[in-house]
Amino acid sequence: MNIYITYIVLGLLLPLVALLYDGIERKMTARIQGRVGPPITQSWLDFVKLLTKKVKLPEDTNMLMLFSGLVLMFAGAFIPLIMVFMRKGDLILLMYLMVGGTLGILLTGLAFRSPYSRVGVSREMQMAFAYEISFIFAIVITIMVTGCRTLEACSASSIPLIKWPLLLIPFILFLFVAPAKVGVVPVDIGEAESEIAEGPFVEIGGRYLAIAKLSKSMKMLALMQLITLLYLLPAGVTGVWYWIASFVIDGVLVFFTISVVRNAASRIKIDQAVKFYATVPLAIGIIGLVIVYLMRGWGM
Amino acid sequence: MSLWSLLFDPENSIWVYRINAGSCNGCEIEITPLFTPRYDAERFGIKWVGTPRHADVVLVTGPVTAVAKESVMEVLSQVPDPHVVIAVGSCGVSGGVFRGSYALEGPLDNLYPVDLYVLGCPPKPEGILTALLEAKKILKAKRKGQYQEKPLVVDPAGMVMGR
Amino acid sequence: MMGFLGLGDQWASLLIVFPLLGAFLIPFVYAFVKNKKVSAWIAILTTGAGLIVAIDTLMKVLGGHTIEVIMGGYIPPMGINWRIDIWGALLTTLIYFIGFLATIYSMGYVKEDKWVQYFATMQVMIAGAVGVAMTGDLFNMFVFLEVASIAAYILVSTEAEASTLEASFKYLVLGSMATSFILLGIAILYGAYHTLNIYDIASKIGAHPMLDITAIALLLVGLGVEGAMFPLNSWLPDAHPSAPSPISAMLSGTLIKIGLVGIVRVLIIVKNTPYFDRILLILLVWGILTSLWGELSALRQKDVKRMLAHSSSAQMGYIVAALSTFTPIGIAAALMHMLVHALSKALLFMSTGSLIEGRHTRDIEGLKGSGRNLSGAMYAVGALSLMGLPPLPGFFSKFLILVSVYQKWGLTPVIFILLAAAVEIFYYLRLTAVLFDVGEKIKENGYILLSALLLGITVVVLGFMPHVLEHIATAGKDTLSSVLPYASLMPSGSFLIALGLLLGSAVICLIPGLRVVGILLGIGAGGYGVYTMLGATVPAVVSVLAYLAVFGVAFVHMQGDGKADGVKDALLFVAFASLLAVLNTSSMFVLLYFWELMSVMAFFMFLTESRRAMSGVYYSTMMTVLSYIFMVGIVALYVGTGSYAMSSLSYVFAAALVGVAMALKLGMFPLHVWAEYGYKEAHPVVAGYLSGAVSKVAFFLLFIAAAYATLPAKLNYILILLAGITVVWAGYRAIVADDLMGILAYSSISQMSYVLAGVLIGGAAMSGAWLHALGHAVFETGLFIVAYVILLIYGTTKIDELRGKGGVHPAIFYLAIVLFMSLAGVPPLSGFVSKWLMYQGALDGGFGIVAVLMMIGSAMSMMYGLRFIIALSGKPQKGGELSIVPLAIYSLITLGLGIYPWPFFEKLSTALAPFKVTVPLTWKELVLGTSGGGKYTALMIITLFVLSFILFLIFYGLSAPAERKGKVFRGGTFYEPTDENLPALSDMLWPMGHVGQYISYFDTWHQGVAFLTQTVADVLRGVYTGYLPDYALYVSITLAVVLKLAHI
């Protein structure tokens, strides 16, 4: 019973926190650019505004696909968010749920017969494949180094000091993955506002868009918290300090991986992105695996 | 700003979409700086979107030429309610220097109900910004179901005329 | 006729009297009665009478009695005697049988004005051949050989054209050289030992080694010319085609065998000498060289009779190889293959002769499409028998040859024999595909058809009576039952009823109008068959998996799409019956038999559509190569452990061979290239059956190989790594495929590689592999069914042609999405659970690289699955609604097992318990954690899903409703975004395609191998220059070589 109450409370609160982080990120971006920027509650306001709009959809929309795509997108961001904050669940399951979220985006894009959304789907698909490689390497190396498969074990892990540098490699890989997965410039090619009119989301508005934006923010927060939990949170932190430390570190991470990156470059092309993600992180991942195997061979 | 306006007031989130209905691009050049650090429209919650279906406010620049008329009408029909249409620049008000040309289908209000005019050729960014802020109020009224009858006019420097 | 007229064994001399009498009577009678037909009747009469005596002789010999006929009352070794042992009796019966049928055949083939000389000469040839077979005296043998040869020379040029006369002349010159050598050899032996009797010489030999060896070499070379050994067979490719078809049948079927029998007599002579083993080794190498050269030469022939002639010499190579072992099994193998080859080759020549008569050309391309009649069916019987495929007798003889050669000489000769056999499979299948193509009908002559039919029926019946084969081959001693446990081939009990029902429903499918009834009956019978197996364990699980797939494709095929639908269904049910028989046995021999039968059925399924026939040829050739590895494993099993029981697979070498063969059959890199022909080019129903059912049987065999024998760790690791590479490689090929079937083909390989890796990794991955096998049978077959619906509605499955169209019924579309999500591994469907388990197992076992490869493969599966779905997302169309039933069942299964997989795992753990494989999954273990620590907390996932859904609905409800009107946003452009001109789809995967184009290029390596083989074949057959002095030179060179080798 307790657990279900926790689920419900977290389930109602965490999406709001995610939107807050989205607003914080926009504020940080604005400050970097020398602007004042919107208030940090801006994402909440956007969300509410979207709920008040009457939506117009094209007449040949595939409603079931749209609906299922949105549900999948939402669930694929919501469930990992709850799992990560509650520190319960399997790592690989988490990864697959987030992949399911991407699948939701693709299904949403497929619901419309618009060239923009189709191009968006194609590019999102390729981007997803490209950064999934890094994600996979990061998770597998983490599992092999720490020996933990679930979030409970990883968060309270007691890894010997000698292994901490080893975790640097998956951490770097996650840093590569984060902007692409969250969908920020320079690698948000699937949802490019100017090139392809926001890609899969070109036709949706109102409440559908609200859910899509919410899912995006939740995804960002879930990913940040995952990185924190796996690599940045010292072991043994519990209770109130756990929440405070998590949120602070999440904020810092958001700053570095999202805001700074977003302002550093403009959007790159899809072939550049795929070639990059299929080479550099792949190489790093293979080096990491090799090092792990070597260390195992040396009995560590 | 009150807690209400910080947290729950939908009026503080305005998403803008631009249609170029045959403009000379002068107004575009004035709209673009709105999101740069000098004018920073984002602090008012104004955001630029790439598709009409996300938009609350539509900025239409230029007189509506015959070539562009069909696209403009179609795009305008794709904007969800409640929305505000702003005609930017003298072309949108009266046809500007192109008035009476054979290539025009008339300034925008011959084709679609316009809620705000921004005068100037081109208008200054402050003017456009004022128009956007006025649009907030109009949107609020539209949300409540009260729509205004008389469109407002904003002069190039940002003063609302008739008030 | 033992004591008839008190003549005893002397009756056997009638075997010479009858044909000589006929030869005399025919022209004699013609001198008075100017009716040519009388000649034919006399010939038939004498041959028929001789046949009766021959059969009687054979019976007596099989009863254990070696007949001895003494000529003229002179006692051997002074006088000439005939000693009829099993070789002689069998060959004589064959000569008479084929001669009898050839005589009838000739009545329809040869022009009537030649009948007198033709039949008379044929009688002389029969007489000569019979004499060689039966005699026990060397010089007598020489005389009869000359008689037969001269008759043959004449008969070759029955139709007097330039080419036949030249062929006859070559045959004459080379044959004369041969008999000169033989005479010289006999003379040397006589000079040394003063006797001409074979058995007498055998007892006396050894006193003069140098003379002996010289004489033996001369005899071998001389007999080799007649026996079609390489390179002495240079007359063969000219003579056999030039002769009229009945004579070709006699030449290839029987006359070559007398050379073989002569070699047997030579071996009898030298049996007790010290250099016997050296002679046997020479024979082995010679035999293998002959077979390899013959098959490769046949590969490139465009003249069908030349092809068959080269094939004859190659088959003689096999028989000689078997003979070179000189063990009881080897001799039995040689006898059996002599019998089978004689009948089959004669049948081939007769049936192709009918086709040649109908089309008036011997060119293979010219015969295209002429085989869709009884002659073609007879051709197919003969070809299948020679290829060694069940249910024809060639299977038993070929298997015996392999066992005997392996037992005596080891693995290397077996590999060469199988290489040659693989080439043979290719060109016979290619000819079958050409003949069964579409073409104009031919007229068939009644006599021709009658004789071909009789011979064909004999071959087929012999295939179903292996005890007769055994009885003959062992000269009545019946000692082969441990090597060839054919008795266990017969299924029993309720399983037999199920098989009978399946075969019955197959027949009903062939009746037009009753096809749907037949399909429903077949589905029911299949279910009953699975039900009868439910007592067994692992095979029962596999049979359920296979049945799921077969049920789906058969059900949806009720809505047929073409002309040969009934045939396809019939073949499907026969194949499924064979599949169940594979599963229902614990003897590897029976398993091999039915496995090969399944492959034959698969090939014929390809033939039902003429444009897919060549793909079927390529596919079947590649599959046969893999089956041969399997066969070597089973041969090794028997030779190594002495039994065929499945439990003796603990003999690691055999298990490793079986395991590797099945891994390659599942499509392991780099031999996954057959997927392109097998799955991509096939009809979706056929591909669905192959991918859904046959791959499960391969998986089953791999499992038992891995379960009974602990494969060496290095081999295990290499196989797992290759499986992982295959997952990604095939996944990439699927992403860039241009055809829906191509996507599914490579997807099938990729997913089965997951299963392969899981089985070999063990632990949690083993349970994941089984669940994934079930999932694969379900979602992959489901997608094949969807591809079939697309074929039904649009007539094509190419993505380019479907662009803009491609819509299906909405229910089918949504069910396809569910199946696709299971394929991609989205929780909580079963595809995710199985993949998750395999990752746990891989990480437990420390296979980090493999885990990464599998996960990348999973991401790829999402991509290519999405390509498939996108191709389906056009405007909904009617059509294919029948598929909703199986698709719905499949979706329910995959969803149910994803949420609640435990019942499956419980059944699985009882099934796997005998193999000491633990399935580490009870309810508690899954929720509380596997040994490695992973947890599939289904309950939490479901709760959170429900919660998210509720939240979603809250947001939904809080907001304003939507209206649908208007078109999609298209900016300022004017083009109407219809489906045809969406440019995005053509470039959909543009960067991916460029990144990995080398992968697609690498996969064409098999074409390089084919090209290399063809080039080698062209070089090899350049030996046959057509220039007679060259041929004579070859004979001399061979003599020199044999002499040198024998003297070492």
How is this structure best described in words?
The complex is a heterotrimer of chains A (300), B (163) and C (1048). The model of chain A has no long low-confidence stretch (mean pLDDT 85). Chain A is built from eleven helices and one strand, in the order H-H-E-H-H-H-H-H-H-H-H-H. The termini of chain A are far apart. In chain A, helix 4 runs antiparallel to helix 5, helix 5 runs antiparallel to helix 7 and helix 9 packs across helix 10. Chain A has 300 residues and is mainly α. Chain B is of the alpha/beta class and 163 residues long. In chain B, strands 2-1-3-4-5-6-7 form a seven-stranded mixed β-sheet, with helices on both faces. In chain B, 51% of the residues are buried. With 1048 residues, chain C is mainly alpha-helical. Among the domains of chain C are: 207 residues, no CATH class; 460 residues, no CATH class. Helix content of chain C is 73%, strand content 1%. Chain C has 42 helices and three strands. A two-stranded antiparallel ribbon of chain C has the order 1-2. At the A-B interface, helix 2 of A face loops of B.
Produce the secondary structure layout:
The complex is a heterotrimer of chains A (300), B (163) and C (1048).
Chain A: H1 2-32, H2 42-51, E1 55-57, H3 63-86, H4 91-110, H5 115-146, H6 151-155, H7 168-182, H8 193-196, H9 206-232, H10 239-264, H11 270-297
Chain B: H1 3-7, E1 14-20, H2 26-31, E2 46-48, E3 57-61, H3 66-77, E4 84-88, H4 90-94, E5 116-118, H5 125-144, E6 152-154, E7 160-161
Chain C: H1 14-32, H2 36-62, E1 67-70, E2 81-84, H3 86-109, H4 115-134, H5 138-156, H6 162-193, H7 198-204, H8 209-226, H9 236-242, H10 245-269, H11 276-299, H12 304-323, H13 328-359, H14 374-387, H15 394-409, H16 411-435, H17 446-463, H18 466-473, H19 493-510, H20 515-532, H21 538-556, H22 565-583, H23 588-607, H24 613-641, H25 652-665, H26 674-680, H27 684-708, H28 713-735, H29 740-761, H30 764-794, H31 799-802, H32 810-824, H33 830-844, H34 848-871, H35 884-899, H36 902-912, H37 923-928, H38 938-958, E3 962-964, H39 990-995, H40 997-1002, H41 1005-1021, H42 1028-1047
Helix pairs in contact in C: 1-2, 1-4, 2-3, 2-4, 3-4, 3-10, 3-13, 3-17, 4-5, 4-10, 5-6, 5-10, 6-8, 6-9, 6-42, 7-10, 8-10, 8-42, 9-10, 9-12, 10-12, 10-13, 11-12, 11-16, 11-41, 12-13, 12-15, 12-16, 13-14, 13-15, 13-17, 13-18, 14-16, 14-17, 15-16, 15-24, 16-24, 19-20, 19-22, 20-21, ...
